[in-house]
Structure formats: C-alpha cells, structure tokens
Write a structure and sequence with these properties.
globular, RNaseH-like_sf, alpha+beta, three-stranded antiparallel beta sheet, Nucleotidyltransferase, domain 5, 6 helices, 3 domains, SH3_Tf2-1
Length: 272
Amino acid sequence: MISMDFITGLPRFRRQHDSIWVIVDRMTKSAHFLPVKTTHSAEDYAKLYIQEVKGLGSKVNLSTAFHPQTDGQAKRTIQTLEDILRACVIDFKGYWDDHLPLIEFAYNNSYYSSIQMAPYEALYGRRCRSPIGWFEVGEARLIGPDLVHQAMEKVSPMKVVMRFGKKGKLSPRYIGPYRISKRMGNVAYELELPQELVVVHPVFHISMLKKCMGDPSLIIPTENIEIKDSLSYEKIPVQILDRQVHKLRTKEVASVRVLWRNQFVEEATWEA
C-alpha cells in the first residue's frame, strides 16, 4: 500500500516545476520525491508513475484529508521533506528541484526505529553503501537536516551570516494567531479563520500549526501582505534590534538583527 500527496506553491525556476509529488510505501517507509507541474494532466502523472515507481496494476482509493489512517504517513514524510528542502536551499543555495535526488537518497538511506532499518534495506533486502559516506546505516543514524548541518559546519564559516533572503514556500512563515473552534480527531484542528481567508479550508494538521502564547490581539494582517505571481512577498524592514560582528579567517563580517513588517520579534533575522 502506498500513499500519495503533493507539496504545491513552490517557486518556479528554469524547469518550471512548481510542485513535488510525494509517493510513500507505507510498509517499508521508502519514498519518491518527484518534481512536477500543476499543469500536468492525468496522463502525464500516469506516465511518470510507471517510469519512477513501476507500479502497474495499482488500484486507486481516494482518502479524506487529514485522516491519519490513510494519509498520516504521507503528511509526516512531507513535513520531513519540507524541513530538509528548506535547509538545503538555505545552506547550499541554487534551485530547490536540484536538491531532490540527494534528499530522496538521504531519506531512504536513514535509519527508522519503527522498522529497525533504513527504507532502502527494507525495500531491497540489503544495505546501501553511500559513495560519500562509507558507514553502516544502523550505526550512523543520520537524517536530513543533521547531515546537512554537520557538513556545513565543516565547509562554510559564512553559514550563520548567509542564511536569509529566501522567499516563497521554502521560508518558514506563520500568520495568525487564530482561535481553535473544534478538534477533528487526534491530529487535526478546525480554526476560526477571518473572511479574507474564506477560500482556505479551515481544518489543519497539527504539523502545520504553531502554538501561540502571546497577546491574542497581535494578529498578523493578511490583507497587508501583497503576494506576487512567484508566490513570494516583499520583506520590508521596520527596525534594527541588535548588531554583532563575526570574525572569520581573514576578515570580519558585520550583521544586524532586523525586525520585518508583519512579523513578531521572535522572527527577527540576522542579516549581513
């Protein structure tokens, strides 16, 4: 049995991909991350599925959104994928679809306690040896962001300074807060959304929510955020909160902590 879902609204680059098709084998936990376009037809998806998954004779069963018995594994995988993809784009730069093959390899070659092995081993019956790290999968137990950050610690003294300026869906952003009106099962909540968000479905998985302990009157107004065609928005600085200097090998780099419009103080970022 496999689960399918999509990550949409990603920025378009030279290949014009704007979405990721996530396909997860629920037994072995192995996954495929396929860059796609929202303009693809059902025939395009069928050809891509046969080419990448080779799942002839599959039977499609449509599921209910945020139903953990059917899409829980896919939602958890998407959350992990977004975290790794965000880390890769921030630290490695470049286009997000260039990082997908490496991310898929790292995901499928990472140890999972629920199956006591890596998805690759569960799927093929043998361990995978990486050409960039000759270690035993069960011993290393490196997963996504840990591997990325450990590598960046060794090769990039500028990593603390050059972390920002990303836009669109790959930037971790929240709006709200909004009051919870109803609990939908164990892993989803229905929110009281304002009128300007009437087109958004009000039920959200807990992985998409962040608990707010602040003043409920401090609501980030969505009507003041102008979304561009590239699904990004202009970040306008409001105040400089702090200053610091990073001493590198051959020079010093000054940076400031900037408070941006429509964001809380906790979301202020350090900029060169």
